[in-house]
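Exercise 7. Predict the joint structure of the components listed below.
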Amino acid sequence: MTELILFVVLALTVVTGALTTVLARNPVHSAVGLLGTLFSLAVLYVVNLAHLVAVVQVIVYAGAVMTLFLFVIMMIGVDQTEDRDETLPGQRKLIASVALGLLALGAVAAISGELDWFPGARAAVPEVNGTVGEVAKTLFTDWVLAFEATALLLTIAAAGTIALASFKKGDEK
Amino acid sequence: MTVEPGWYMSLAAVLFGIGLVGILVRRNALIMFMCVELMLNAVNLTFVAAGRAHGLIDGQISVFFVLVVAAAEVAVGLAIIVSIFRSKSSASVDPLSELRG
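Solution:
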């Protein structure tokens, strides 16, 4: 019952935050909407027993990534003069009809009860607690190669960012 | 009444759809970028819900890798937006149509 109440409330805040992100004219409002979505998702992760993921979500996403976003928004100025005209004729109508169609399809599939979300899942699975120890045990055994690959990726990303930032205007011409 | 894993999947699908519509409709590069984050977070939610439904922790570990890629992508992407802003003085993606070929 607790999970149901939490799910309904958090689903509402997640969707509200996402809609704010998409619809807000002011980029700062978009960023705050995204922040609300990220926090609500972190609570949903706790509900799903993914404790470490929830903590990392708050620290890395809501903390570091959103700070970086707000930093760049403030640096390049809050630009509200977005052109609202359609450059591609009929683009928005097409997007809206495709989105509504997919939504209707999904709703029909869900209501009909024919939809098996997890074909391989057994009825009674053990509850997995996503604590630091449990995550680390699997991460540093089965996934250690992918883990090392992310180290390489982060190094390359950091080097690339520094290279991009050090270009002066006119260098590339 | 219990919360089925499918409900989380539906919520994630809606979140992904909102992000996709945002990236197709908006023309401010920063907001398009935030919509990419929305889509990545929708995928993270499906990973966590599916991992719980199957009783496996691997779903949560996949979330970590998505998170790392997203963090790297934000660093590089924002650097690109800033360097574009330096030459075009605008965060809109429309002036970038001259970048073709």
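Discussion. The longest helix of chain B spans residues 58-88.
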